[in-house]
Amino acid sequence: MVKKILIAYSSYFGNCKKAASTLAASCDEEGMETSLYPILESETLPEKPDILVLVTPVRVRKIVGPSKKFLRKIGEKDLRYALVVSHGAALDHFFSPVPATKKLERHLERKEMVRITEPLFLQVERQQGPLSKGYEKRLADLAKQLSQAVSEEDR
Ligand SMILES: Cc1cc2nc3c(=O)[nH]c(=O)nc-3n(C[C@H](O)[C@H](O)[C@H](O)COP(=O)(O)O)c2cc1C
């Protein structure tokens, strides 16, 4: 059975949107069936996927509210997920996205959701972007990991 991968994103300046569509294109190349879901523009919830990828910015040291609210609604036990987090600050800076991402992961673990990859951190050059060089390759690598996770599940 084909596994459905939902790539949900929140995006204010377009960087997460771009990352989400780049990832979807890479997933297509890997032969996976993906759909894109714009959290900020959607009023109805999507169908439950087999794998959820959340692409979200960090703002003021927090994962943005709409992304967390979306997870509260769609998240459930055993749902497999991956996170892509866009950020401006360096990973060892006071405004680092790492603590907020870890906090979210702990929350999802309590919900008994299953993380399938390490979170992918994508830096933007300035507050409004663009995404730092090399993001396409990093997303293509993530697509490969997702493809592996899907085929392991099918075995
Ligand atoms: C009000 C505001 C607060 C922000 N706070 C942080 C922060 O605490 N840490 C960080 O790394 N980046 C921060 N950023 C940068 C955002 O992460 C960046 O704008 C975002 O990743 C761009 O993604 P988007 O175009 O999809 O919205 C902030 C940006 C704004 C506008």
What does this protein structure show overall?
One of its GO terms (molecular function) is FMN binding. Pfam families: Flavodoxin_5. This is Flavodoxin-like domain-containing protein. It comes from Sediminispirochaeta smaragdinae (strain DSM 11293 / JCM 15392 / SEBR 4228). The chain contains four helices and seven strands; from the N terminus they run βαβββαβαββα. With 155 residues, the chain is of the alpha/beta class. The protein has a single domain, classed as Rossmann fold. Strands 1, 2, 3, 4, 5, 6 and 7 form a seven-stranded mixed β-sheet that branches. The protein is globular and about 45 Å long. The site of flavin mononucleotide (FMN) has 20 residues, from helix 1, strand 3 and strand 5. Flavin mononucleotide (FMN) is lined by residues 11-16, 57-61, 86-89, 95, 97, 124, 127, 129.
Query: Uncertain spans, ≥5 residues at pLDDT below 50?
Result: none
Number of strands: 7
Name the hetero compounds present: flavin mononucleotide
Number of continuous helical runs: 4
- Tell me the β content: 15-25%
For the record, the CATH class is Alpha Beta
CATH architecture group name: 3-Layer(aba) Sandwich
Name of the CATH homologous superfamily: Flavodoxin domain
InterPro entries: Flavodoxin/NO_synth, Flavodoxin_dom, Flavoprotein-like_sf
Protein name: Flavodoxin-like domain-containing protein
Organism: Sediminispirochaeta smaragdinae (strain DSM 11293 / JCM 15392 / SEBR 4228) (Spirochaeta smaragdinae)
GO molecular function, one term: FMN binding
